[in-house]
Structures are given as structure tokens and as C-alpha cells.
Amino acid sequence: MQFLKKYSQAIKIKMAISDYVLLHTGQKMPLIGLGTWKSSPGEVKEAVWNAVKTGYRHIDCAAVYNNEAEIGEFFKEHVGADKMVRREELFVTSKLWNTKHHPEDVEASCCKTLEDLKLTYLDLYLIHWPHAFERGDNPFPKNPDGTIRYDFIDYKETWKAMESLVKKGLVKAIGLSNFNSRQIDDIISIANIKPTVLQIECHPYLAQNELIGHCQKHGLVVTAYSPLGSSDRLWKASDEPFLLEDTNVKAIAEKHGKSPAQILLRWQVQRGVVAIPKSVNPARIAQNLQVFDFTLTEDDMKRIGTLNRNWRYIVPKIKVDNEFVPRDAQHPHYPFNDPY
Ligand code: A2P
Predict the structure, then answer these.
(1) What average pLDDT score do residues 293-314 get?
(2) Are 276 and 227 in contact (CB under 8 A)?
(3) Quick one: 203 exposed, middle or buried, by C-beta within 10 A (0-12, 13-18, 19+)?
(4) Is the pLDDT of residue 245 over 90?
(5) Whose CA is nearest to atom 23 of ligand 1?
(6) Distance of CA 232 to the CA centre of its chain
């Protein structure tokens, strides 16, 4: 019996091992995490359960995904001593929303996320976007014509409040999401606690080589969101290129006996980029973690590298008169007006 217990513990530990990158804080960040954007309440808890059961140890969350409370139910039931997984084995990220950039709102937002997730600390907390919306509890405050009501607080002020969260032990590391290279430099120029991670849209059609190079130079790890092309997004246009159907990706997948999704994920982790594929399907959740048992050749990597066309799937949009139109581009802190 004792042997069996030890054996099953060993299996559990072995299953839990996925490759990771080291943050400058010394934390180990698993290279594959479960994305939870677009996973609705009602399906996200089971998705996280399936992921952790399969061996995921990294869950990517955000207040604005509107599903943290349900993820928290999973954490409450299954994370802790003598449970499915110990808290210190998990790497949990969340993000500060655009309406909460004022320094006096930052700690309360972080605490709300912790309360929803039923955790006492986060491994990583990111500023979700550099540009702010009008303060308040409506995540998308709007003018009568449907456009967003903005706020122009400087993200450097927000960063100072993020640093306090580390000092108070509420989060182990802080970082950025959707910031461009100039905005990253702005943060670094005033930071007492340096950003650890930049989370950005990244896949072969938007390879982000310059921005990744910039991050590496400054010691930031890059996380790729929408690594599979996020084809389940609301504002998807019918004429968009479909990444998972790309003939080059499919040919490489066939050669390795893997799926196109696994090739897209392997390409990221093989160049040291963390990826957070979203899925609520148990088989696809499992498949997306199985990217550590094969290697892409140099030629495969180069061939995938040629697919870059700086194609951004995730451009914030808003529904006006029943049509999705681009949003935020006029905001002075909008990140995508710079080259990278
Ligand atoms: P599902 O949740 O039904 O699995 P991204 O991570 O780029 O945002 O992409 C998420 C989209 O890709 C979702 O529609 C998700 O659907 C789908 N998806 C996730 N994993 C796979 C996979 N291994 N193969 C095909 N589609 C996948």
C-alpha cells in the first residue's frame, strides 16, 4: 500500500512536469498554460480541472474575462495540501483591467481577483492594456454613441501601485500586457521592481520578432496569447487567414505525426516563448500540453518563420450600429500605432 502511494505520487509528479522558463525573480513559469479568455462561466471550471488533471501547472486569468469566480471554485476545492495540487506547484496569472489604472484602485482590484480566485497570492499580475478607461465598475463605460469613455492616467503611475502589491505579498511578480517597446522602456525607466513578463498576441502570422528581441534584451519573458489564432473570437471576419488551416503548418504537422495546434505551440516553446492556448475541450486541452516529446528541425522553424505577415487578429473592436468597428486607436496610450 505504502509502495502504491509512493508510486502514484511519483506518477503525479512526473505528469506535472512540463518545461518552464525562469523569471528574473527566480520563479519557474511553465511554458504552456491554459488560456481562459472566451471560456464561459459554466465551462471554465471543468476546463481548468481537466487541464490540471492532465498536468498543466499554469493558468492564465483576467478580471475582465468575467469567469474568475468560477475558476476560484476549482482552486478552492482542488488546490491545497492533500488535494489535487499544492498551491506552490501552480503558476496563476491575472490582469488589472483598464478601468482600474488609478493607483488608489489597483490594490482593491487585485484583492477582488484574489477573492474571486480564492487565492491568497498571485504568481503574476499584469497591466492588461496601457490605455485606461473611465474609472468605475462598468468594464466598458460608453458614451451615448457607443464609443468608450477614456481616462488618460499615465501607466507609470499605475506601475508604482503594482510595485506595492509585490511589497505587500499579494503578488509574486508584476508585468505588462499589450505594451509596445517604447511603453516598456517608459516603465523600465521608473521601475524599482522590473517587469518580468510581457504578454502579447503572437503566432506565426504575427511573429513579433522585434518585440521579443527587445524583451529578451531587458530580461522580460514573453507570453503568447491567441497562439492558435483565436478563431472563436466574437468579431472574427470571414476573410481572415485561418492559422490552423495553413498549408505549411499542416505539412509540418503531418511530417511529425502531430496536429497543427501542436506545431504552433512547439514553435513558440522552442524559441523560449510561453504560450497559453485556450480550450474547453478535454482532448484538445491534453493535446496542447503534448509538445515536449518532439523537436522541430531548423528547417521547420525557418519555414514557420517565413509565414509572418504582421497579421493582428486581436484589435479591440466595439459594436456600433450592429457592426464591429476598431476601438481605442485614438487614445494616446494605444499600443498598436507604433511599429513594435
Ligand atoms: P475549443 O475551446 O473548443 O477547444 P487561442 O488559444 O488562439 O485563443 O485559440 C482558441 C481556439 O482554438 C478555440 O476556438 C479552441 O476551441 C480552439 N482550439 C484549442 N485547442 C485546439 C486544438 N488543439 N486544435 C484545434 N483547435 C483548438
Answers:
(1) 96
(2) yes
(3) buried
(4) yes
(5) 284
(6) 16
Residue 8 pLDDT more than 70? no
**H-state helical runs in the chain:** 2-16, 44-54, 68-78, 103-117, 155-167, 181-190, 209-217, 247-256, 260-270, 282-289, 298-305
Is 340 an active-site residue? Answer: no
In this structure, the residues whose C-beta lies within 6 A of any atom of ligand 1 are 35, 226-232, 244, 259, 261, 277-281, 284, 287-288
Specify which residues 171 forms β-bridges with.
122
Could you tell me if residue 246 is left (phi over 0), alpha (psi between -120 and 50 degrees) or otherwise beta? beta
Distance CA 121, CA 256 (A): 40
Helices 155-167/181-190 angle, 10° precision? 50
Whole-angstrom Cα distance, residue 255 to residue 270? 17
Residue bearing the bigger pLDDT, 14 or 183 = 183
Radius of gyration of the chain (CA): 20
Q: Tell me: the pLDDT tens digits for 222-234?
A: 999 999 999 887 7
Query: What sign results for the dihedral spanned by CA atoms 69, 73, 78, 82?
Result: positive
Ligand 1 geometric centre to CA of 284 (Å):
7
Average pLDDT of the residues of the chain: 92
Query: How confident is the model over 19-65, as pLDDT tens digits?
Result: 999 999 999 999 999 999 999 889 999 999 999 999 999 999 999 99
- Catalytic position from the list 20, 56, 65, 340: 65
